[in-house]
Design goal:
alpha/beta, Alpha-Beta Plaits, 6-stranded mixed beta sheet, 4-stranded antiparallel beta sheet, 10 helices, 14 strands, about 30% strand, elongated, binds adenosine-5'-diphosphate, binds magnesium ion
Length: about 300
Amino acid sequence: MQNGTAIEIKALKKIYENGFKALNGVNLEIRRGEIFALLGPNGAGKTTLINAVCGIVRPSSGTVAIGGYDNISQYRKARSLVGLVPQELSTDSFETVWNTVTFSRGLFGKANNPRHIEDVLKRLSLWDKKDEQIRHLSGGMKRRVMVAKALSHEPEILFLDEPTAGVDVELRKSMWAQVRSLRETGITIILTTHYIEEAQEMADRVGIINKGELILTEDKKTLMQKMGKRQMIFVLREQLTTIPSELGSYPLTLEKDDNGGKLILTYDAETENDISDVLDNLKSHGIRPKDIYSHQSSLEEIFIELVEVK
Ligand SMILES: Nc1ncnc2c1ncn2[C@@H]1O[C@H](COP(=O)(O)OP(=O)(O)O)[C@@H](O)[C@H]1O
Ligand SMILES: [Mg+2]
């Protein structure tokens, strides 16, 4: 395991008692200090994966090392390095914010450290609510209390399982800002989401999971470049049998349909392309499109394609 590695997951499988295969051999390395988004549809195995890493679900086979410690044979060491905000929030407590967060720390056998609890509450904009009962807080504050609890024992790695599921847009954005500010403290963050925008917004790297398999792990920037394909579509009046060879220098493809068909120019979002140049060339070959429109593939389309192929 390398120094820059926070978590190393190898050949992880989980078959539930009823025989359901929720994880089918996942290999994944999480780097120190990164925000990693595990993106996948409902039922893909995100929660199972996180729970298996955090020791809540026992893997059927495979290994997980957290900061170099095996999460089964060296459970306490491994577990002390991670904080988990579970998908299901339990937040109708009569306890105060301060007591709940302090109690969470105690569960890890750590000595009291009011300074740390204060830091965490301030960072999450909960300081002025420290004496409030949790049940009296707004939904967004309750979520932040869950994050504060997960940070109470000073973990190096924070798991957020669907941090903004069912939350309105405004709250989602403020949660994103909070997570970004946490990352500045050097903590490694792994979040699961089925919101593509969330992965796009937050992550340094994205892993796409479907049916218990990690089908892609990629730097977000690379993924964005891959998805940054643009198309200019020329709707034709008359059928073309082939693309004139003089137009061969353009990345054109011909798509036939019941009408005149379409000529499709595909290019990277980043490269400049002179559409009028292409148009002139088409014209000089007697090709006059009756309509022109552009199309940009989104992460959503890529995601759907990936997830449907499998
Ligand atoms: N305790 C369990 N017993 C049997 N099947 C389960 C259990 N927990 C989850 N599953 C199934 O495993 C699959 C993955 O679930 P989960 O990890 O919660 O997915 P996600 O978090 O990506 O929505 C789902 O099909 C779910 O129904
Ligand atoms: Mg889940």
